[in-house]
Design brief:
By secondary structure, the chain is mainly β. The protein has a domain of 296 residues: Porin (Beta Barrel), CATH 2.40.160. It is built from three helices and 20 strands. The chain has an 18-stranded antiparallel β-barrel. Strands 16-17 form a two-stranded antiparallel sheet. It is globular and about 70 Å long. The N and C termini lie far apart (65 Å). Keywords: Signal. InterPro entries: Alginate_export_dom. It holds the Pfam family Alginate_exp. This is Alginate export protein.
Length: 481
């Protein structure tokens, strides 16, 4: 009898042990499942081919010049992961023109034609845990897009197939409508054993006549502070940014004499500070604009004193139509005065913004082609019409004028009016992941635009035009719907 009782006790003990193991196993699965649920994996992509017809895009063409037609393509793979108190993101990008590569193995392609690029690669560490009363305090480290407000001075430049990134560290704070970001970057060409001299114009792009330092000369270092607050009537933000450029000396030697830039220790610092505002005056009327001032020294060491002022109004007319006039002022240098290495630079540089969005889609100003140092006045009227839920039409007209006196090269002046541009665009969302966009732009330029002081094109066609068709597919690979 005692043996039977002992056997029953052993069986009960074994069951309890198994139950305990089952409970522990269930608890482990629950905790693991919770951990997996809290973590989030994202995998998206982008396929964006764009066919363009160019007959005077970015600069005037001679009357006998042939038009350009080509198709460029951006392909991206984006992978992100969110875990406990961290985020991780990588964007691999390839940008090419159809036909630039051989159709089989090509062993002679130069490095400059290699469009494969690591567009983004960053990690973000949350400095507060989930019990904190602060909504967000984090440190974002690595290659990243930096974009604020309307992107007039800091933007991702998404229109360009290659876009723009920064290798930077950004301390990010957000709580109760307040945003405060503090960023810094320090660039070097390679791993060095001594010194920190930086060549901001590598040999592959030397001589590229870009209108902005963001494209022509890369900064050696950058620091900025961005503060913003959301109010019931709109948004207001403040920016202070310093970008620093490596000092250099022009050295002339040889027969015939050749002048080259020799980089040296030290930096020239350019400071930009100002405000952005986005105000809802009424339910149907909105004002958006900015005021910025630049001082310090430009990338060539000249003393800098320049300004930007902008205002755009948007009025909703009916249920589908939005219209509004606006004006941009970017200061420049008096074209009738001689410019020397010691004279003050009054030309405002819109830093690392998105000029395609503001100063005409034909990109004549602050984009891929220089236009002198006289600054810009841009009077414009913009209209948007939501024809359907998935179809939107846009029409913008720009009147461009030099913001300063424009020399005629013979001791006098010429008209400061540069031209009128009409931009038309259609955006159609076929699905949530497929967008088709098409646009057409035409300009009536003046002789001042073609002059040596602006675009310097002889026998120019003063009615340039440009058109494009773009398909944008952005798949979400983990979306099961």
């Amino acid at each position: 009898m005692q043996k039977i009782t002992t056997g029953v006790q052993k069986i009960k003990a074994l069951k309890e042990s198994r139950n305990s193991k089952s409970i522990l196993l269930g608890l482990a699965i629950t905790l693991f499942g919770s951990s997996v649920a809290n973590a989030q994996l994202t995998a998206t992509g982008q396929f964006r081919p764009r066919a363009e017809f160019r007959d005077g895009y970015s600069t005037l063409q001679a009357k006998d010049a042939e038009t350009a037609v080509f198709t460029s393509q951006r392909t991206r793979l984006n992978v992100g992961f969110t875990g406990y108190r961290f985020k991780f993101f990588v964007a691999l990008q390839d940008v090419r023109v159809w036909g630039q590569d051989a159709s089989t193995i090509n062993r002679v392609t130069t490095a400059e034609n290699n469009g494969v690029q690591l567009h983004e690669a960053w990690g973000e560490i949350m400095l507060v845990d989930t019990t904190s009363t602060i909504q967000n305090l984090s440190l974002k480290i690595g290659r990243q897009e930096i974009s604020y407000d309307d992107q007039k001075v800091i933007g991702g430049l998404d229109w360009l197939q290659q876009a723009r990134y920064h290798d930077a560290v950004v301390l990010k704070y957000f709580n109760k409508g307040w945003t405060a970001d503090f960023g810094a970057a320090f660039n070097q060409n390679k791993e060095l054993l001594a010194g920190t001299i930086y060549n901001g114009v590598p040999a592959a792009t030397a001589g590229y006549p870009a209108g902005t330092n963001g494209l022509g000369t890369n900064y050696k270092s950058l620091e900025y502070a961005y503060l913003a607050k959301k109010f019931f009537f709109g948004d207001i933000s403040f920016l202070f940014l310093s970008d620093n450029f490596n000092k250099y000396t022009n050295v002339t030697e040889g027969t015939p004499p050749v002048t080259t830039k020799v980089n040296e220790q030290g930096i020239w610092t350019r400071n930009t500070t100002g405000f952005y505002y986005n105000v809802n005056a009424t339910r149907k009327l909105k004002f958006e604009g900015s005021i910025y001032h630049q001082f310090g020294h430009d990338k060539n060491g000249r003393s800098l004193n320049s300004n930007l002022a902008s205002i755009t109004s948007t009025l909703q007319v009916g249920r589908k139509l939005f219209v509004g006039p606006g004006i941009d002022y970017l200061s420049g240098t008096d074209g009738t005065k001689a410019v020397t290495a010691t004279s003050e630079n009054n030309q405002f540089d819109p830093l690392y913004g998105t000029p395609h969005k503001f100063w005409g889609t034909m990109d004549y100003f602050y984009a891929s082609s220089g236009f002198g140092s006289q600054g810009l006045l841009n009077y414009f009227l913009k209209a948007k019409y939501n024809m359907k839920d998935n179809l939107t039409l846009f029409a913008d007209i720009h009147c461009f004028e030099a913001a300063n006196k424009l020399s005629n090269g013979a001791g006098g002046t010429q008209t400061s009016y540069l031209g009128t541009e009409l931009d038309l665009k259609m955006s159609y969302n076929m699905t949530k992941m497929i967008n088709i966009e098409a646009g057409y732009s035409v300009m009536q330029a003046t002789k001042s635009m073609a002059s040596a002081q602006v675009k310097a094109v002889a026998n120019a066609n003063l009615t340039p035009q440009w058109a494009y068709v773009m398909v944008n597919i952005k798949p979400n690979f983990l979306n099961k719907k």
